[in-house]
């Protein structure tokens, strides 16, 4: 299989005559490099996506098969800690018992329960108004100064979209007037003056477009960045707990789950015996 490097290495150099007798275009080498990089990236994306799906499926199976055992272990740990604390009365044992129980039944905060509608002091005013059909207190109004109003009127007259001669000019004016309206609503005199200077300077000249070679270089840079992002995703998947387990037995993940299940069952039996002894 030809690698991207081999593909690039086999590209004809400048000055080499083509079968048609002409000289290759200067960007031909870059075009071949881009095509090779694109193909390599597609294959890498497929590999990463495939592994991601395998990890998700294995995680779902792991949760279905082993989740109840982990839950049972957490419950036994909490009951053991509570039994030990009841026996000793030691403050440290009591603290550990509270922590163990919290891990089993974590209590959400008030804000989390009510999605930001209330805190420990009660409903926020906006939420209370909505629930009681009362009008929400409007924000304090900004009263533009005389100078701000003057600047606004001048800009609105000069840049009004209805004065446009074509659709492109209308879009430019509409975008500009939106910014003017925002500055006026805030009473921002400094920004209105900046906008007045911007309008007086006129539209910016169109930027010079990139050359074909520059576009190809930009494409190569984007492909390299995309490859780096995918590498980060792949590394996170591989280093995750589920990904690490999956890599231990890629051909037979069910066997690995069975082995872990046996270990968890042994731990459950050990905890149950410990709890029975404390309660006995």
How would you describe this protein?
This protein has a two-stranded antiparallel ribbon with strand order 1-2. The longest helix is centred in the first third of the chain and has 61 residues, at 28-88. It has eleven helices and two strands; from the N terminus they run H-H-H-H-E-E-H-H-H-H-H-H-H. Strand 1 (118-119) and strand 2 form a beta hairpin. With 280 residues, it is mainly α. The chain has helices at 4-9, 28-88, 91-104, 110-113, 125-131, 146-159, 167-185, 189-201, 212-239, 241-248, 253-279; strands spanning 118-119, 122-123. Helix 2 packs parallel to helix 9 and helix 7 packs antiparallel against helix 8.
Write the layout of secondary structure elements.
Layout: H1 4-9, H2 28-88, H3 91-104, H4 110-113, E1 118-119, E2 122-123, H5 125-131, H6 146-159, H7 167-185, H8 189-201, H9 212-239, H10 241-248, H11 253-279
Antiparallel strand pairs: 1-2
Helix pairs in contact: 2-3, 2-9, 2-11, 6-7, 6-8, 7-8, 9-10
Brief sketch in words of this structure:
Helix content is 72%, strand content 1%.
The largest sheet is: 2 strands, antiparallel
**Could you state the order of secondary-structure elements as H and E?**
HHHHEEHHHHHHH
The end-to-end span amounts to 69 Å
**Which structural class best describes the helix and strand composition?**
mainly alpha
Helix content: over 70%
- Large-scale geometry: flat
Approximately what portion of the residues adopt beta-strand conformation? under 5%
Mean pLDDT: 78
